[in-house]
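User: I'm new to structure prediction. If I give you an amino acid sequence, what do you actually give back? Let's try with this one:
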Amino acid sequence: MANRLAHATSPYLLQHADNPVDWWPWEAAAFEEARRRDVPVFLSVGYSACHWCHVLAHESFEDAATAAFMNEHFVSVKVDREERPDVDAVYMEAVQAATGQGGWPMSVFMTPDGEPFYFGTYFPPEPRHGMPSFRQVLEGVRSAWAERRGEVGEVAGRITADLAGRSLAGSLSAAAPPDEERLAGALMALTREFDAVHGGFGGAPKFPPSMVLEFLLRHHGRTDSEAAVEMVEATCEAMARGGIYDQLGGGFARYAVDATWTVPHFEKMLYDNALLCRVYAHLWRVTGAGTARRVALETADFLVRELRTLQGGFASALDADSDDGTGHHTEGAYYVWTPGQLREVLGEADAEFAATYFGVTEEGTFEAGASVLQLPDGVGPVDAERVRSVRERLLAARDERPRPGRDDKIVASWNGLAVAALAETGAYFGRPDLVQAATDAADLLVRVHMDGQARLHRTSRDGVPGDNNGVLEDYADVAEGFLTLAAVTGEGVWVDFAGLLLDTVLVQFRAGDGRLYDTAADAEALIRRPQDPTDNATPSGWTAAAGALLSYAALTGSTPHREAAEQALTVVTALAGRAPRFIGWGLAVAEAAVDGPREIAVVGPPDDPATRALHRAALLGNKPGSVVAVGEPDTHDADAVPLLHGRPLVDGAPAAYICRHFTCERPVTDPDELTGWLRGTVR
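Assistant: Good question. You get back a string of structure tokens that encode the predicted 3D arrangement of the chain. For your 683 residues, that looks like this:
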């Protein structure tokens, strides 16, 4: 018999709907039930693409005896961290404070008032490597609850008070946004942490540093720093050649388990691929490198082919695991190859070529002698047509394998990131189909997630919004996507929609001193209101909001939005020198603020080739955070983007106006001259 999760919209929760555990969703009734029964609450947080979440579920939550014990002694609550990032953030902070580490699945035991007192992540079915079994943990907590209730209550109260008294953002506040000196210091700190051999920063496991790379590209755009762009080139080349990148189908896995980008953790997340698609497109904009162009387009095509839903949005993730052909779900089974498998598909000669080209060996780089495809150094010149043929045949054969599961819920913030990436990539490379895909996703966000209001639902599935409120990153990233789409299409309505969302940010998420919270003022009250300015796998809501507010102010001349952006950026000042890897997007936004950002108004008939040429040159300018508006000349239409107001043609020809803080240089009519202005070669 299905449990209460059968009515959920989250694919992750639905995966647990047939567990013998009597799961509850996160709701007040679950905590009321725990009070009525006088039992603790067990909170389990995970997500659909999480490998160890599935392992714990199979070993323990599907076990009848374990489930019976849980049902008798606990009220068990299951949360999808992607649906409720606020719940995840609050209790993950407690887990990390208590244990020094965190991760998923996250396991938290708490009182019926939501106060946590015991924590962990994955627990094995039997004691292993110094870890207790999950059953031992359950029995220990039950015993403590029954026999040492006072001690449990004291621990829970102390932990809750500690969480409530924390103010990370407050301790990091500074008087002003980062200046040129601070940004130069951040570059120096990153240079010290850079892996000059393999690219990226730090050691294993190694995550794609997409937001740091954006900062480095913007720093190069403002200062012409060769060191900055060289770190980006080396990292992007290493990732593109490594196993973290899908050499057949495009797209990036979540991270590499090693320092060499060879073996990935195979889940593919929407947010990683949206952010990295944009990084490679921006790298191409600076260098014209063929690899950057190829990877940007292949990643964009992956997003549309593999993650696009029937409603026009983008699904959250592809699982790491899939059926290995024997009925067992195994990590990476869909992606890895042995020499024998190559021979079965390609024949002897092409298999030998493919093994050399993709680094497939008898010993393998993964489990059971299988290899993750990569592009090793030193292969030498190859026949491009032969590579294309081999890729196509291997991809066709792989398509016959059991596919990884797809989490098809739509997350607002991640779709905002995808809108921005696809709009720019489509515009740069003459792919109107990608711009249309971005527009379709933006339409879905307005129709389903905004529902005619200035408030956002965080998730939807099959065109039905979830019963969850958007958090700060949703408002900020969706606004960023809308503003980018407006720059590409010239449709000012997207600026209007962004303004609605950002006005909500100012009212609901901003404190009187300018600090930002991750949840709205009228959101469900948890034991702590989450507030984290540091970037993690995605831009934090805090830094993403700063970026969107800054761009909106540049397009509209809004002083309140500019001031809010500058106040938000003060937290970056404190982190720029000591932890630049964890504030990459904040640094990128600060680069835009220091540079202006540039405001580029392109005026002319939209079907005039001269207008289109100027528009393209404006989009390809590499000054950090530049905003672009394109439209009819000399408009005073109240619905037009304010940056376009009063901009006439020049001698009857389309023109571009380059401004800062609405103070403009002389207009230009030549796309090459515009490019020179934007790249600093014309003064």
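You can read the tokens as a compact description of the fold. Here is one thing that stands out. The mean pLDDT is 93.
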